[in-house]
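Could you please consider the sequence and fold appended to this message?
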Amino acid sequence: MNTTSKTDTASAAGPLLDRPCLPADGDSERTPYSSTQTGTDSETPTTDKKSGREPLVPRKYLLTFILITSLFALWGFANDITNPMVAAFQTLMELSAAKASMIQFAFYGGYATMAIPAALFIRRYSYKVGIMIGLALYAIGAFLFIPAAQYQQFSYFCVSLYILTFGLAFLETTANPFILSLGDKSNSTRRLNLAQAFNPVGSLSGMAIASFVVLPQLLSDKRDAAGQIIFSSLSEAEKVDIRVHDLAVIRDPYVALGLVVIVMFVIIGLTKMPKLTGAGEKMNIRTTLGRLWHNNIYRFGVVAQVFYVAAQIMCWTFIIQYADHLGMNKATAQVFNIVAMSLNLSGRFIGTFIMRYVNTRYLLMVFGICASIFTLGAICIDGRAGLYSLVCISFFMSIMFPTIYGIALENVEAEDTTLGAAFLVMAIVGGALMPPLQGMVIDLGTVGGWPAVNISFCLPLMCFCLIAIYGFNTYRLGQIK
């Protein structure tokens, strides 16, 4: 999450519902959580004798913290090695852009299906069991790429990714509150910031593997002197040979990823984890849902999160199609994706620093407006300048997910945060719903004489406008209170 790193000593002072909205001085919101260190490790964490402050990660939790933090990189890798595969499948399986984007529908649809069951399971059992199930599902989905490549069925790849993201939903729903619990409540936000820094590391690794290992090896992406893909003009026998080769190239990184996940499964299975409250407890679901529904900031925060994830996936997935329209091959186009992710990572640190001085709701509004302006550039400018504008959007997307997450949960009662956080994870379904719509627009070729790929970015423009409105409304409410 992107929140300020200053210690919030007031966060431990009383119920979250009694805390005022964020003041105008820019002090960042604090994300509540339902777990505190109790149970077998209920003793007070050791205080740093020199500073008099609680350590960010107590020594007794250090190994657990390292292991759980590594999971953030694992799902970042899966997310961003999958995005460029949409364009690869479109060429290789001779699909429309809309049908190829079903890869994203399957990938992010898995989050929508499993986030709530994962939250309920974790409340009933434990964080460790939730993580183990998540890793098992992750590995199964990755290994299903083997029969999918063998039978050369696009639907099999979609099913594989769907199951893989069952595991990711378990991991994301579990890892965030678990990290928050591994130490003193007063510095929990900084602890989560540190863990989440490894998510873009995994994302950049996934993009790098796609750019420098997978996409350059695809024979189906060969082009003629005019920059047009020649695959569709080949004989059926030549297409079959290329398809066998390219599907094996696509399959191998997922199989290797599955092996890494199995290793993590064994390591975590053999590691003794602290027993923390919040997991293994029953909840009154009806009462919790009622409180969440009547919390306007939370309810509209979930909606804003749906539109943010939709915008993010559309901007990152269809960079390749945008560059393809300009005559670039997929490997070259993916480099622009890496630049976009690098801007996103730098924006995360810069935005977090700015939050020390600027109200986070106000900053969300400003970044939403800036993202809208650059999206207009991607729509209205036909050429490399439009592509550069599209890449620059990523800088302003950087703070959006964690900031919306934090604002939405700020005034949610502690016992409701497990299910509340699950709905915010479930909001990732936006990445399943909107890309197929954008793909349909791209398939039109031209709209009113203008490239349809440019016009298709009206969809993320709408999303960024809504996010800016959410930032403005929550900032205004904070000022009133």
In short: The domain at 287-481 is CATH 1.20.1250.20 (Growth Hormone; Chain: A;).
